[in-house]
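dumping this here before i forget
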Amino acid sequence: MIDGGKIIIEAGDDDFWAEKEKKKTVRILSFSLGSENYGVRVTEVKEVLRVPRLTRVPNAPDFIVGVMNLRGEIISVIDLKFFLGLGGREMTKESMIVVTDAGGALMGILVDGVKDALDIEETAIQPPLGTVKKEVAEYTKGEVQFGETILSLIDLGKVLSCREIEQLKKQ
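structure:
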């Protein structure tokens, strides 16, 4: 029903809700890294924060941006661009930290900007394109077109259990 320019869906509109339940959807947090768009499953995200004061760690690998205090717990913040072969680490007013425990331990991931939370139909997720570099394809669950935008879906579990991070955990 349309009322004064607003679309009103009544709770008793059984056809709408039955159709919604038939379609399996995944909730995705979309974000940008440079000029490219990415997404992760919302279930892998604990919270999203503005970039707090980060402390640089001497002699840390290039992918470690620093550490931060998250309510009394010190967590590492990594630069996702390192793993995806994207150059440069620049922090702007739009930069955010995505906090996750997908790799087992709580960790922050620096992203250039968080866009939106989207509901994507599972059937819309396609395998990674054959043109994607091998090391990037390792960390990609698939790709999905959302409007004019193509999102690469990142597997945070794989990124956070990669060789470089596993070696860091052993030290």
